[in-house]
Structures are given as structure tokens and as C-alpha cells.
Amino acid sequence: MAQAMRPNTATSLFATDGKPHPLQDTLLAVTLVLGVIAFVSAMFHNLHLLSSWTGLVGILTGAYGQFISETTRERFWLILGLGASAVGFFLGMAHGGLFGGVLG
């Protein structure tokens, strides 16, 4: 039982299984950053291009991160990033969309 008490310093911040997950952590960080950008920029009507595109990319990266995630902690933070990305995406779409005012 002495092994159970030994701290493991090589683990990931978001991994609870004691193994590093660099790809999952990268997708998690990208999803969270894109979610925050999409959510904040969606509060401004004239930033609909930024909010809709960052929201769309955040949804895609978060969905793939959910698909390959291995721990509950990763999934929890991915869901928060996905939610923020989705809100930013939908508000950006409501304010003008992905190409609103650019093509027409």
C-alpha cells in the first residue's frame, strides 16, 4: 500500500488516471480559449464574424476532444468549453452569421 501514497509528478493536470494525455489536454485548452472568445465576443453585435467562427471551431474541437477524452475531469472542462462555444456560435449566427455583410 505504500505505492498508493507516493505522489506522481508526471501526470497531467486534468488526468485522474495517473497518465499524461497531451493531445486531450491541448484540445481541452483550445476548446476553452475558443469558448471564452466566442462567448465574450458574442456580447457585441458588430463582432458576429469572430463569435460565430470561433464558436464553430470551438464546437468542432470540443466534440473531437469529447470523443477521445479518457477522464471525467477532461470531459467536465470540455463540456464547459463546448457550452461557451455553442452560446457564442448561436449568438453570432443571430447577429449576422458566418458571412453576414461580407459576401453580400
UniProtKB/TrEMBL annotation:
Organism: Streptomyces monticola
Ranges that cross the membrane: 26-44, 50-69, 76-98
Transmembrane is among the record's keywords: yes
Keyword list, A-Z: Membrane, Transmembrane, Transmembrane helix
Name used for this protein in its record: Integral membrane protein
